[in-house]
Design a protein that fits this description.
This protein is mostly helical. 89% of the residues lie in helices and 0% in strands. The protein has one domain. The chain has helices spanning 2-28, 31-78. Helix 1 (2-28) runs antiparallel to helix 2.
Amino acid sequence: MEQDEVLHAELMQAFSKYFKANQRWINTGTRIAGREVRYWLSEIRRLCSLRREHVRAWRKELDEIKKQKKEIQKAQATGTNTTN
């Protein structure tokens, strides 16, 4: 979970830097400012992809735990034990 918090913080920081760069680009319209905006948008996309992978892995883990609990409950209901 700590890695997720770090990734979330990086994403929020990148968004903050994008926001500032975008304001500079809107106000100045320079090529350098535009390049910086595109850089931060690219960085946000990269971080979002990583975060998405983490969320999917966590969901998959939770689904597996849920499945195991259902199997245990089903075994207990039928009077057999599958947990060896």
